[in-house]
UniProtKB/TrEMBL annotation:
Keyword Lipoprotein: no
Name the UniProt record assigns to this protein: Sulfotransferase
SUPFAM superfamilies, A to Z: P-loop containing nucleoside triphosphate hydrolases (SSF52540)
Keywords: Transferase
Domain Sulfotransferase: 70-328
EC number(s) given by UniProt: 2.8.2.-
InterPro entries for this protein: P-loop_NTPase, Sulfotransferase_dom
Entry similarity comment: Belongs to the sulfotransferase 1 family.
Amino acid sequence: MACIPSKSEESAIEVSPENVSSENLEDFIRTLQTREGWSQPMVLYKNYWCRPHLVGKIILLQDIFKPRSSDIILATQPKCGTTWLKALAFTIINRSRYSFSDHPLLSSNPQYLVPFIEIPDPGRDHAYLETLPSPRLLSTHLPLSMLPSETSSCCCRIVYLCREPKDAFVSRWHFENKIVKGSNIELNKALDMFCEGFSPSGPFWNHCLEYWKESLVRPNEVLFLKYEGIKSHPEESVRQLAKFLGVPFTAEEESSGVAQEVVKLCSFENLTSLKVNQTGGVDHGNKIFVENSVFFRKGSVGDWANHMSEDMAEKLDRVVGEKLKGSGLAF
Ligand code: PAP
């Protein structure tokens, strides 16, 4: 017979990720370390910083999300090129369905063409993900250790895109000050927090390292890319991506310049010229209104130099260098 705890015993039971439910979720979140400094307070959950409202969604994901072997998950840390990767992967995978002149990217922001598994599109819950036909193209900002364990056992493919930390940091700082009205975080203060590992989805280096190590162990299932690599060799990167996703370009496609077309359609210049990416946006609640245009700023490599002093750059380089030491990953 199951032993039913008395009321006093019940309140003594510690709420943990294993026994958290919709009834005790708020209690559980209150047990987590909280810190302020970015535009919204964050909590430390499983060694990563995230917005409190995300914790329940991540826990729910473990039960509800059923990875399929045909799934493709685009994983990034925020500000590392998510929008670009979504546009590229969506275009590559759907290239036989849509012509370049009448393409969904011309009327939809790339962010909303590929749903996040932890935060499905506004107005949709996790059950929506299960209604999507295979192969599903999905995305996440979660570290590898927070993905449901079946993600690795079912052998679905993961593309991880990372970015030079100083550029990712500067992009994050701009974004934070943009999405919340009245937010005015000082660059120096933001850098201190970032270097302490305190940033949304941070510590930055741990997130990269988890996927980096997995890509070395399972290279056929985890592809590790760098933003700077795509910038310097866009067509090669598109070919590499198509091959990894199991849809390499045919000889005919090569001779008709499909890789170049993909690069052009998804380029920063093209996407920022479209009305859909200049207007409108989505209300995420909690005083956060994310304009479609906020996903596009400079779209360049090395913009950090326009914001950070040499000392600031050295500081972040030093921290990242120490954290990545011996891993084989470097920026
Ligand atoms: P997310 O983290 O909010 O999901 P993400 O796309 O990763 O968005 O971050 C936006 C960054 O990608 C911006 O960088 P910046 O602040 O340094 O400019 C944005 O400009 C850049 N970006 C968006 N689209 C493209 C693109 N097509 N090509 C290159 N960079 C892009």
